[in-house]
Each structure stands twice: as C-alpha cells, then as structure tokens.
Amino acid sequence: MATPPTVLVARLADGSFTVKVRGPRYETSHVVTIPHELVEAVGAGDVPPEELVRASFVFLLDREPASSILPKFSLDVISRYFPEYPAELSKYLGS
Fold first, then answer.
1. Which of 40, 49, 69, 74 has a Cα-to-Cα distance from 30 of 20 to 30 A?
2. Cα Rg for the chain, rounded, in angstroms?
3. CA angle, corner 60, sides to 1 and 76, nearest 5?
4. Are 78 and 70 in contact (CB under 8 A)?
5. What's the average pLDDT block by block, 10 residues per block, for the chain (95 residues)?
C-alpha cells in the first residue's frame, strides 16, 4: 500500500491559504480561499480554517492525483467537480 501524501497548509497574510502536497516523488503547490458561505453550508463553523482546507485536500486526493488539482481555486468549486463534497466532508474532518 502506498504512503499517503503529506498535506501542509499555511495561512497567507491576505486570508487565503497555501497548500503543499508532498508525495514520494512529487510536490505540488496550491493557493485556496474559503468562502464564508461554504463554511456554513458544510456545517464547519467550529472547524479551524486550516483543518477545513486540509480535509478538503484529502477528499480531493482520494479522487484524483495531486497534479490534477487546480493550482489556485476557491473551495466552493470542488462541488462542481465532485457533487458529494459537502456531504462527504464531515468524514474527512478530524481524520
């Protein structure tokens, strides 16, 4: 079984987040934003934003390689590609 990639999240000064996904032979970088509406829609008001971003990336990595994840996006676009995202996210929070 392959080692899961490492997901590192850091908040930027403008309120967005930089995400590095590191695997055995690759590293990708991403910049994401969290719309306030999304936090309410997924019931994540008590979740630290960095954890919401990390969980969202683990969700994505379960469905596609890191190289397929957009380099810059808002978390609300995930549900355009994966409609199950809002309902499934709670499974990834705190994991």
1. 40
2. 13
3. 170
4. no
5. 86 96 94 92 89 97 96 96 93 81
| Closest to 78 measured CA to CA, from 44, 45, 34 | 34
Give 3's contacts (C-beta < 8 A, 6+ positions apart): 23, 24
CB distance 32 to 17 below 8 Å: yes
H runs (alpha helix) in 1-95: 36-41, 49-61, 78-81, 85-92
Could you tell me the two tokens for 81? 């590609």
Q: Which residue has the tokens 């990390």?
A: 54
Least Cα distance to 75 among 37, 48, 45 occurs for 37
43 Rama class: left (phi>0) / alpha (psi -120 to 50) / beta: left
HSE of 7, CA atoms in CB hemisphere, 13 A: 22
